[in-house]
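Page 42, continued from yesterday. The earlier attempt failed because a stray header line got pasted into the input along with the sequence. Redoing it now with the clean sequence only.
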Amino acid sequence: MRRSEDLSTPRRGISVGIHYDPEAFGRFSEGIARFIGTARYLVLQTIVITVWIAWNVALPESLQFDEYPFILLTLALSMQASYAAPLILLAQNRQETRDREEADRDRAQAARALADTEFLARELASIRLALADVATNADLQRVLERLEAYRDGGSAATVT
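This time it went through. Structure tokens are written below.
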């Protein structure tokens, strides 16, 4: 059996690849996406493009570096777009993950609040039931009036 097909033991060779911290790269990409989405970035990009075109149109040919169809400018903007789109998507995916986790926490907190509310409602109902058998102030007042009437020599039956 060849070594490449033997999966029973781990490989002991040198691993070639790019190693990076996904969290740090995610924060970096979110920072770029946040900057690209600002008015400041749009103004800066507009100024750069305007200066680029003006430089290559107004100055003498010896100072121009990108002639009229502005192929170099098109290439630069295409390259910028090819990097910006995945960075923006990565930032959106990270935000979606954070939103999902926050929604899960909110749902769990709402479930706990509902359970607490239901518990308190049951406790309140049991207290009301327990208090239904307890004499109220009006009941005690009527008993006191009957006792006083009985003590004063009257019949308890005559007092209502």
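Notes: Residues 148 and 154 are 9 Å apart (CA to CA).
Reminder to self: strip header lines before submitting.
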